[in-house]
Amino acid sequence: MSPINRRDFLKGAALGLGAGVMGAMGAFSYTPIRTKFLPQVKRQMADIGVCKSVKITNISETSWFDNDIFMKNVSGAGGLLVDQYTFNWAPFGNSKGIGKGNYADGIAKIKHLLPNKLEEAWAIAKEASVDADNAGGYACLVEVEAMDGKKTKYLFDTGWSYEWMDICFKREGIDNMLANGEIESLFITHEHMDHYWGLPVTTKYRPDIPLYIPGTFYPEGKQYIKDSGHVGKITELKKGLTRVQPGMAAYSFEVPIIFRVFGEISLYFNIKDVGLLSVTGCCHQGIVLFADTAYRELQYEKDQFYGLYGGLHISPFDDWDPKYDDLVIGLKKWDIQRVGCNHCTGLITANKFVDAGYPVVKGTARFRSKSQNYLGNGDIITFPA
Fold it and tell me: What angle is formed at CA 139 by the lines to CA 263 and CA 129, rounded to 5 degrees?
């Protein structure tokens, strides 16, 4: 066997999966021997209680409809590290072209119409913005069944396009659930346009819905809450664990993200006699850190990492890199029993999960979702099965 080179070592170390010996696949990382060279993990085993089951309805996983158009926008505005509010994307377009926008100019055109006149607001935004018809959004409905049988619903993100998200809300009955007070609160995982900018579609139906956001929002993001007509309680989650109800906790990761966004909230559920379910919007913190954090900090049934749902941020633009194969292989150590992936998981990743034999729950490829190899728009998954 040839000696390890510096490039392979750094690649393996960056993934957090070991030394990366034997080339990019880093086979050494997946053998029992590797544990002899790693410090023993001290587990905190925080008790978040238990719940009976979790049901997730995918409202929309389609952030944008054409990846080529989206990447053309990104390139034209200056790349992935540029402030998202300057891209001139709807609803904050100011008619000055790609990369020349700002929040103040954009919101001034539509603020007086929010949240009740969304069609008019979006029409104005489309005229002033770049490729507004390409905007979609990510949002799902999470229903938690307590041990006594009581069910509580949470909205997890609220999408991007006013037009598209209103269609999706009505398709899944979210509009009526909000208006009737059936949804307990809204979690905004992070400040990205495709998870957050559709907020007026939620406040249109329930302006006082309790709101959870990362404590790392920028001033524009916080101002948008007010400008969207929200009048309810806002809870800014600090770094770390926040218990929500028995068997459910939110975890705030403070990580830098593309488009000048910082911080992301994910959810953990401890399901009685089954194990841990992890739910994520984009998982910008990385799937390995996401799983390892649960292992280090939480107590859960059977010590089993049972389920995973959401965007896993592995090749989100379908630009496959060999290092991603390490992640696909590395996840096997958790022996996950049920996977519902979509959104920024990427089509190539979803296909590789299926090929690798992961227990991926397939979808129906309806409502403009592109593949049955992940859970698409309108699809439902339950934990346990």
Answer: 80
Task: Write the CB contacts of 79 (distance below 8 Å, at least 6 apart in sequence).
Answer: none
Q: pLDDT tens digits, residue range 113-141?
A: 999 999 999 999 999 999 999 999 999 99
Token pair belonging to 341: 């992936």
Mean pLDDT of the chain: 89
Structure tokens at 355: 């090929």
Q: Are strands 234-237 and 248-257 parallel, antiparallel or unpaired?
A: unpaired
Bridge partners, residue 137, by sequence: none
At 23, is the pLDDT very low, low, confident or very high (cuts 50, 70, 90)?
Answer: very low
pLDDT by residue (tens digit) across 250-302?
999 999 999 999 999 999 999 999 999 999 999 999 988 999 999 999 999 99
In three state form, how does the secondary structure of 185-244 look?
Answer: EEECCCCCHHHHCCHHHHHCCCCCCCEEEECCCCHHHHHHHHHCCCCCCEEEECCEEEEE
Instruction: Evaluate if residue 32 carries a pLDDT over 90.
Output: no
Neighbours of 25 (CB within 10 A): 17
- The CATH number assigned to the domain with range 46-58+140-191+203-218+229-383 reads 3.60.15.10
Q: Are 51 and 247 in contact (CB under 8 A)?
A: yes
Residue 322: asked if its preceding bond is cis (omega within 30°), the reply is no
pLDDT(146) > 90: yes
Torsion sign over Cα 189, 192, 193, 199: positive
C-alpha span between 338 and 361 (Å, rounded): 7
Domains of the chain, residue spans: 6-37, 46-58+140-191+203-218+229-383, 64-135
Q: How far apart are CA 142 and CA 307, in angstroms?
A: 14
pTM strictly above 0.90: no
Helices (H), 16-115: 67-77, 103-110
Q: Based on the number of CB atoms within 10 Å of its own CB, is 233 exposed (0-12), middle (13-18) or buried (19 or more)? A: exposed
Q: Which of 197, 169, 194, 195 is nearest to 65 (CA)?
A: 194
Question: Who's near 351: CB < 8 A, 6+ residues apart?
Answer: 371, 373
pLDDT of residue 40: 67
